[in-house]
Design brief:
Among the domains are: about 100 residues, Immunoglobulins (Immunoglobulin-like, Sandwich), CATH 2.60.40.10; about 110 residues, Sandwich (Immunoglobulin-like). It has 3 helices and 17 strands. The chain starts with a helix and ends with a helix.
Length: about 325
């Protein structure tokens, strides 16, 4: 009986020791994130399912670490560091396979954080699709007293495993099924991300120290919806300005064509008048010539009327 109690105590002691002092490693869609405390020893590792010929790591600053040992044959290589803020960032490892060719590359994100931290501080979602924002304790599987979130443009809310997709808060926020507050998870799934969800979120969790520990998560939307209000305003004014310029150019061209058309009509009228003037002069000259030219003479018979009372004249004529 005593041995059983001792064995149970030993398991409990080891469990607490590992949970309290061990950093946490998360794999989200192939992206590995390590949450660690400042000055904590961290084992950064890469693994494959095939033997390695060589393996090396690249520090966020560009510094390189090489690995050698029996682990290469088992597809495992690692480097141990005492993590500081300078070590935070994106690490990468390059792995050489037994056959020559393209290397295998893996990426690890190391974050030196406080008690509670966002697993992914920058999240990109698809408009109209669901997305999960997640914070967790950085000192092992430590239970949370509560979990809460502050959206960028909505009322803050708290949630737990009792808030499911069937009874979401505000009709859109619920706790993911595969998370647990007892394991130190503070997460929320947003159903159908919209414009008002984009921005800086705050996750907060209460621990046994009586304090609330927070971290920030920037949520963005892929594609057109990532445009900020300033960008949209700038584009709008740009389109309006371009339309105004095109309108002014159209008016100038129209006026120019109108003026050119009037000038051409005036020139045509002048030509027609010039062409008509000689014609009128010729016609007038012909009329004048007709009026001044001599007319052919006509013979008009002379009729003499004599009075019937002059009988002597009649008899003489007979």
């Amino acid at each position: 009986m005593g041995n059983v109690k001792y064995f149970m105590f030993l398991i409990y002691f080891l469990h607490c020791t590992v949970n309290i002092h061990g950093y946490r490693v998360f794999d989200r869609d192939g992206v590995v994130t390590i949450l660690a405390f400042d000055n904590e020893k961290v084992n950064i590792q890469c693994q494959t399912d095939m033997p390695m010929t060589y393996c090396g790591f690249i520090h966020p600053s560009g510094k390189r670490y090489s690995f050698s040992g029996q682990g290469l044959n088992n597809g495992h290589c690692a480097v141990t560091i005492t993590a500081t803020k300078k070590d935070s960032g994106q690490w990468s490892c390059h792995i050489g396979k037994a056959s020559v060719g393209v290397e295998i590359m893996q990426t690890i994100h190391l974050r030196v954080v406080n008690q509670v931290a966002a697993i992914q501080p920058n999240v990109t979602a698809v408009h109209g699709k669901s997305v999960t924002l997640e914070c967790a304790t950085a000192k092992g599987l430590v239970p949370l007293r509560y979990c809460r979130f502050e959206p960028p443009s909505d009322s803050p809310f708290s949630l737990s495993e009792t808030v499911t997709a069937k009874n979401p808060i505000a009709g859109k926020y619920y706790f993911p099924q595969n998370k647990s507050i007892d394991r130190g998870d503070c997460a929320v799934t947003i159903r159908k991300v919209k414009y008002e969800d984009v921005g800086l979120w705050t996750c907060g969790a209460g621990l046994d120290d009586g304090k609330e520990h927070i971290d920030k998560i920037m949520l963005e939307v892929d594609g057109l919806y990532t445009m900020s209000t300033a960008s949209v305003t700038g584009i709008t004014f740009g389109v309006i300005g371009a339309a105004a310029i095109l309108s002014v150019l159209g008016i100038v061209v129209w006026k120019k064509r109108s003026l050119l058309g009037t000038g051409q009509q005036e020139e045509q009228d002048v030509v027609e008048i010039q062409e008509l003037a000689p014609r009128q002069s010729v016609s007038t000259q012909r009329i004048s010539e007709q009026r001044t030219s001599p007319q052919p003479s006509r013979h008009i018979p002379l009729v003499t009327v004599q009075s019937p009372s002059d009988t002597s004249a009649i008899s003489e004529a007979i």
